[in-house]
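Minutes, project huddle
Topic: does the predicted pose make sense with nicotinamide-adenine-dinucleotide bound?
PN asked that the exact inputs be recorded in the minutes so nobody has to dig through chat later. Recorded below.
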Amino acid sequence: MRQVDHFIAGNSPAATRKHKIWNPSTGEVQAEVALGDASLLDQAVAAAKKVQPEWAATNPQKRARIMFEFKRLVEENKQQLAELLASEHGKVVDDAHGDVQRGLEVIEYACGIPQALKGEYTQGAGPGIDVYSMRQPLGIGAGITPFNFPAMIPMWMFGMAIAAGNAFILKPSERDPGVPVRLAELFVEAGAPEGLLQVVHGDKEMVDAILDHEDIAAVSFVGSSDIAHYVYKRGVAAGKRVQAMGGAKNHGIVMPDADLDQVVNDLAGAAFGSAGERCMALPVVVPVGEDTADRLREKLIPAINALRVGVSTDKDAHYGPVVTPEHRARIEQWIDTAEKEGAEVVIDGRGFSLQGHEDGFFVGPTLLDRVTTDMESYQEEIFGPVLQIVRARDFEDAVRLPSEHQYGNGVAIFTRNGHAAREFAHRVNVGMVGINVPIPVPVSYHSFGGWKRSGFGDTDQYGMEGLKFWTKAKKVTQRWPDGGGDGSNAFVIPTMG
Ligand code: NAD
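Predicted holo structure (tokens), as shared on screen:
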């Protein structure tokens, strides 16, 4: 059986614990991953400490050249990466290409690190005094990532951290760790010194070791909210800088004037693409007014019934299996709960079986109507191919629903009315807003981050926010007196007056 090992400088010790890696399309175990512990992390940290000072002292242009070469290598290997990703995660291969591509876009941004790292300078901030500021790397950073974007999210983190002069230790999801290891191998092939980017596998034991390690300066986490909150608290208590992105329940508001054919097309992709296992999926649709709701429902039903569920290599499939049998069971339980709570199960994806692949972890597309805010199935994240219709009375109701939800990752509004869209974007209490854009993941030179229980900490991923997270600002005030003194009273706080 294929073994996925840690990727650290030096030899990793034989694993005492392992975790199975499924092929969700066939339901077979295709590989095993070694689970590490604190002593393995110590080894990785020691290697990172050795190379980081020299890397930080390497001029940013040379650091950028490694990023350029890495980008070229990832592009050259994209098809294999996408196939490996799809086989471990279950998303269809085309979608896996997108996973790699959205991460590469952050690498492209990191290729511009010399420009992004230019500091600020004020000549003559006081008599004979200049002030300048610069951003310096933190040292060793760590990233803990979820299963659902095994290429994109690691690249969000290590692209920015390493370009800024840090060494980086990645702890990817133990459910699909193959691609993160391949990326680290390609990074060394691109010319990076060994030990600069390392991958340690593990579960809670390794996460705790990272959070407690005194030589790791910063931790970036993406995953579910309870764990994000735990990571945030424990990391901060250990004196680290921490950003921790959590779960989501994104709403799509449909105004009465929206182009419903366009909305149905967008919603089908945003709710069911990647089997709904995206933190920026749209699992809740909020039509405004009963008439809009009825018209939308009528168009949604045939569109959802036409969706093709298939194995991840099926070129015609809209989406593939979910990641594990446990996750499939949890999604089906949520549909049971919704039904018990009084939601109408319009299309039922429970018990779905794909002919020829009966052991795969498939869930059929599910549509629930008349979902209300008091239902647990509305309040919690389902993370599966399940679309819930929550009917809003009016625009105010539609602004209130996502604003009051515990999660605040993304939200979208579909309308032809610019005034309503503008009002909505300004008022809604959610971090990322789409206007007639169902999945508003900002491009790499902006930044990504949700609010409320979707994001703990105050900096976003990638872009200038990412750069800020992975560096600390040094501020220098300088004076070069030409002798004789200026007669000022040194006992009074300087005021530049
Ligand atoms: P998860 O929280 O189960 O796992 C995330 C990471 O935490 C993994 O590396 C895992 O090994 C580790 N982990 C698991 N249990 C742990 C524990 N008890 N203590 C410490 N660490 C632990 O998340 P997942 O199922 O891999 O990913 C799906 C979740 O991630 C969803 O909730 C989704 O919304 C969220 N997500 C959020 C964003 C975002 O940017 N906000 C992006 C992608 C995914």
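Observations noted during the meeting:
- The two ends are 73 Å apart (CA to CA).
- The first helix runs from residue 38 to 57.
No decisions taken; revisit at the next huddle.
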